[in-house]
Amino acid sequence: MIDNDVLQVAGGLQVIHTPGHSAGHISLLLRSDGILIAGDICANVAGLALSTVYEDMCIGVQSILKVAALEFDKAVFGHGKPVMTAANKKFGKFM
């Protein structure tokens, strides 16, 4: 998988290369439903925030800003509760 590939499952999942937490980290965007599967790009345990561990925090921040520029309303995480409204805008604001 490479950045912007579309997996032919669930109506199409766009692969977003989001390194920082780890070099090969990806997030998945389900465009048809406006949902970002963020994984460990950041966390939403006690509010939207950086994850506790990054291989490279500067690259991780760049990845967060990269997804903030995409169109999605909801986001789910490896750690924490989902964000159910205006998720892309919230990604850009907490940085």
Write a compact overview of the structure shown.
The chain is of the alpha+beta class and 95 residues long.
Layout of secondary structure:
Layout lengths: L5 E2 L5 E5 L8 E5 L4 E5 L3 E2 L3 E2 L7 H12 L5 E4 L9 H7 L2
Parallel strand pairs: 4-7
Antiparallel strand pairs: 1-2, 2-3, 3-4, 5-6
Describe this structure in words.
This protein has 95 residues and is of the alpha+beta class. The chain has one domain (6-93): Metallo-beta-lactamase, Chain A. The chain is 20% helix and 26% strand. It contains two helices and seven strands. The strands form two sheets. A five-stranded mixed β-sheet has the order 1-2-3-4-7, with no helix packed on it. It has a two-stranded antiparallel sheet with strand order 5-6. A hairpin with an 8-residue loop joins strand 2 and strand 3 (26-30). Helix 1 (57-68) runs antiparallel to helix 2. The longest helix is centred in the middle third of the chain and has 12 residues, at 57-68. The protein is globular.
How many angstroms does the end-to-end distance come to? 28 Å
Order of helices and strands: EEEEEEHEH
Estimate the strand proportion.
25-35%
Q: Taking all residues together, what is the mean pLDDT?
A: 94
Radius of gyration computed on alpha carbons: 12 Å
Q: CATH topology, what is it called?
A: Metallo-beta-lactamase, Chain A
CATH superfamily: Ribonuclease Z/Hydroxyacylglutathione hydrolase-like
Q: What is the CATH level 1 assignment? A: Alpha Beta
| Strand segment count | 7
Q: pLDDT below 50 for ≥5 consecutive residues: which ranges?
A: none
Number of domain modules: 1
The helix fraction, in percent, is: 10-25%
The oligomeric status of these chains comes to single chain
What best-fitting shape do the alpha-carbon axes yield?
Answer: globular
